[in-house]
Amino acid sequence: MEYYENTDNWLKILIEKLNMPSTAEFCRKANLNRGLVDKLFKDLHSPRLDTLQKIKEAFPETNMNWVISRKGNVIEDVQDDEEIKLIEMYRAKIKADGNSRTIQKYFVSVEFFVQDQIEMDELESNATAQDVKNQDLMFYRMQLLFLQYRRHLVTDLLYQASNAGPLITSSIPRQKEKYSDLLDHLNNEILKTAKLITDDELKIPENPVQDVAIKTSIDEDVIADEKRVWTELLEYGQKLEKSNTDEKE
Hints:
Elements: H1 10-17, H2 23-30, H3 34-41, H4 49-58, H5 64-69, H6 81-94, H7 100-129, H8 134-163, H9 166-169, H10 175-195, H11 199-202, H12 208-248
């Protein structure tokens, strides 16, 4: 917590914390008379309510509690409407449930959403730079989405294995290590796909024995869930196609 003695002028401290290049710029943005500001600098009188309102409107991050009482931080975080909605949604639908597993998955999902979008944007940029055809770009997009989806599943399995105790880890030797190896493998494939580069360009030594071990021992745990999801999507697509055909007839 920041605290300043009364001997330090509050307005000078505030202008410094706001990173204002000059007092004149502060006056311009806050729509305050320079003569009034100079008097406030000299502590000749206390600021009026309308003066404080102008400062708050021009600089919403100003902590008025500090201005009045000199307690707390000079600058406070300002939440916009979107941030407030996200916080309200988290409190109403995630935190209120009180399920630690759900809360953990929410935070992981948010991190993945940001990471996935960054990787997809990188793929789009590299495709544009390399003049990749639309048909090929569609393939790369699908490949990247599939790899990202598998990363989500493996991360979830790794979390479960790390928190399930001996009942899981003792039944399958080195379970956590294998999930971690597969996660590294997937992240490497995602990197190559987003950058549109090959193993030779990455200069990654091949290790076919390890890759086979990873795929045969762990993919079975992941593929079952993948097959179910892709089967449902395929069936849904077939239903939509049949429905459109019936309507045309």
